[in-house]
């Protein structure tokens, strides 16, 4: 073996070359680790049957809070915080006609996993027996109560929840609404309020707002619907025409074979609901990141 001594200058050049190669490799590895592997599915909220287990195993901090809602009113809400170093945008999670269930709380937890401060208000607060909310009634009792909730009161309570969350430690001053079924309609309606803080609305299988109200929309809206949901879907195109004529952004997707409530009932409709969920949730998160940041 022949040993060869290098000059000091060439030794230093060799050292810098090795460092550069090492940094390049580390950068490439970091990038690759940040990209999902081919075929790897992004995380989505748990289905209804797995929601409680998902909540119990979550590493994120969640807590019950009481939110002042104006006129002496107050509501109970579930808040989940993301694990991040910078302030996070807020998402107001609007429950279905069944009230604030474990499934909705699990959706809030997934939003926190995706980087958002999520607040899920119980819009039935104070409406149940002995002043209770969703927890004080069964499912049909929740349905009966929510039919008595006046829309202006629901909007007031939702705005209060969003304003409260934006003042929490670790929250930024940007907020979006995201709702399901009855809550999807409420999310669409929030876009018509002219609330300056609201930056976007996401609608999962909720009916569109009335034409007169659509004239007040000034923020982007994303709608995500199941194909087999004619009651809801008949309201999509009329809203799209009004908003397009006004130059307002309304994107929507209708998922083949999926039914109403597909994100909750992911095991339904011979796999169509799960396929819709695996496509719709990442699209919702991408939309929120584009519009709100985070």
In short:
The protein is of the alpha/beta class. The chain has one domain (47-292): Rossmann fold (3-Layer(aba) Sandwich).
Tally the beta strands: 8
Question: Which CATH architecture would you pick?
Answer: 3-Layer(aba) Sandwich
Rg: 23 Å
Helix and strand sequence: HHEEEHEHHEHEHEHHEH
Which class of secondary structure composition applies to the elements?
A: alpha/beta
Q: Termini distance?
A: 58 Å
**Shape estimate:** globular
CATH topology: Rossmann fold
Low-pLDDT ranges: 1-40
Strand content: 15-25%
Average pLDDT rating: 89
Helix percent reads 40-55%
- Major sheet summary line: 8 strands, mixed
Counted by DSSP, the helix tally is 10
CATH class: Alpha Beta
CATH superfamily: Alpha/Beta hydrolase fold, catalytic domain
Number of domains: 1
Largest beta sheet: strand ordering: 1-2-4-3-5-6-7-8
């Amino acid at each position: 073996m022949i040993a060869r001594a290098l000059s000091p200058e060439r030794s230093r050049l060799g050292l810098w070359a090795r460092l550069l190669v090492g940094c390049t490799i580390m950068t490439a590895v970091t990038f690759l680790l940040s990209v999902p592997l081919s075929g790897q599915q992004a995380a989505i909220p748990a289905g209804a049957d797995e929601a409680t287990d998902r909540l119990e195993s979550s590493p994120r901090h969640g807590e019950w809070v009481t939110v002042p809602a104006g006129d002496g009113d107050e509501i109970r809400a579930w808040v989940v915080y993301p694990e991040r170093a910078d302030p996070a945008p807020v998402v107001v999670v609007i429950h279905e006609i069944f009230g604030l269930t474990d499934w909705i709380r699990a959706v809030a937890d997934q939003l926190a996993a995706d980087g958002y401060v999520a607040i899920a208000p119980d819009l039935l607060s104070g409406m149940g027996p002995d002043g209770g909310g969703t927890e004080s009634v069964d499912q049909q009792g929740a349905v009966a109560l929510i039919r008595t909730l006046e829309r202006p009161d629901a909007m007031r309570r939702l705005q209060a929840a969003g304003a409260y969350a934006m003042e929490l430690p670790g929250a930024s001053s940007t907020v979006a609404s995201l709702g399901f079924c009855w809550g999807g309609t409420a999310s669409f309606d929030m876009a018509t309020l002219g609330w300056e803080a609201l930056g976007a609305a996401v609608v999962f299988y909720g009916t569109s707002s009335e034409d007169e109200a659509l004239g007040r929309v000034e923020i982007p809206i994303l709608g995500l619907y199941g194909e087999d949901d004619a009651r809801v879907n008949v309201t999509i195109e009329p809203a799209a025409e009004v908003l397009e004529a006004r130059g307002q952004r309304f994107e929507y997707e209708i998922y083949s074979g999926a039914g109403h409530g597909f994100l909750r009932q992911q095991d339904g409709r011979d796999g169509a609901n799960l396929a819709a969920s695996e496509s719709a949730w990442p699209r919702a998160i991408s939309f929120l990141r584009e519009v709100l940041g985070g």
